[in-house]
Write a structure and sequence with these properties.
Blueprint: H1 23-26, H2 30-35, E1 48-54, H3 60-77, E2 83-90, H4 93-101, E3 109-113, H5 120-132, E4 138-144, H6 147-169, E5 170-176, H7 180-191, H8 208-219, E6 222-227, E7 238-242
Helix pairs in contact: 6-8
Bound molecules: S-adenosylmethionine.
């Protein structure tokens, strides 16, 4: 087990990658599911959706999003045979193995331990999964409450590469970015134990929602198609779709 993934100083709140062992005790999936729209998902000729969930933690939200999308598409297409498949990845193997053990959806959700910050292993994991599904891109990539951890650990450039990577692999991106105040809270939690994030001080792009939006719309040719109201946690879900797809 990579010691970098351990929480710091015996404090389960002091994690470097957002890999909280008890995340769903304090951030339940329900409010996020309630915020998702029903009408933006594109029905394709395969009568199936192939999705990616990045940073799935122990899988509770993944299972709920899977259920939401399956119901939504069955309603919209008036057809019980519409299928959804998810590849859900997280960099913490303890979390992906817990997700596998509690998976209620069989082969429709595959959990894998993958670091989603671009390298060959990530691209191979995505391509292998898509190959098994007979596809070369994901219809939708979900990225709930992950961008801050990528930003803190890989800096402005790392966040940009991460988003460009998602934009290469998926036609629709669902992103729930953390606002800057969450960064300060994460830094404080680690700081209590004398630890820090390598890139915090050098981050120039602190208006995170704008940064992510500008990158996807101006550099990656996506358009914003939906924005939720902020949740009680001050988080907004934003959906982008690739132009001309
Ligand atoms: C705060 S949790 C969010 C979990 C879930 N997406 C949700 O919103 O309910 C962030 C998750 O992202 C994962 N994570 C952080 N950086 C990652 C990376 N580079 N690749 C894959 N997973 C990552 C963490 O291990 C953690 O489980």
């Amino acid at each position: 087990m990579n010691p970098e993934l351990n929480f710091v100083g015996g404090d389960p709140g002091a994690v470097k990658y957002g890999n909280f062992i008890n995340y769903y005790k304090f951030h339940s999936p329900e409010s996020r599911i309630r915020s998702l729209p029903k009408n933006v998902w594109k029905v394709n000729e395969n009568r199936s959706l192939v999705c990616l969930d990045v940073g799935c933690n122990s899988g509770e939200l993944t299972g709920e999003v899977y259920q939401f999308l399956s119901n939504c598409m069955k309603e919209r297409t008036n057809s019980a045979d519409f299928s959804c498949h998810f590849l859900a990845v997280d960099l913490d193997p303890v979390l992906t193995s817990r997700a596998r053990e509690s998976n209620l959806h069989g082969d429709n959700i595959t959990y894998e331990c993958v670091d989603a910050v671009g390298d060959d292993a990530r691209d191979k994991a995505f391509a292998d999964y898509l190959g098994r599904m007979g596809r070369d891109r994901f219809d939708v990539a979900f990225c709930f409450s992950v961008t801050m951890w990528v930003h803190l650990n890989h800096g402005d450039e790392g966040l940009q590469l991460f988003l460009e990577g998602l934009a290469r692999w998926a036609d629709t991106l669902v992103i729930e970015p953390q606002p800057w105040k969450c960064y300060r809270a994460a830094v404080r939690r680690l700081g209590r134990h004398g630890a820090c994030f390598p890139h915090y001080e050098s981050i120039a792009r602190r208006d995170t929602l704008t940064t992510i939006g500008t990158l996807l719309t101006e550099h990656c040719h996506f358009a914003e198609v939906f924005r939720s109201d902020p949740s009680l946690w001050g988080r907004t879900i934003i959906i982008y779709q690739k132009l001309n797809c």
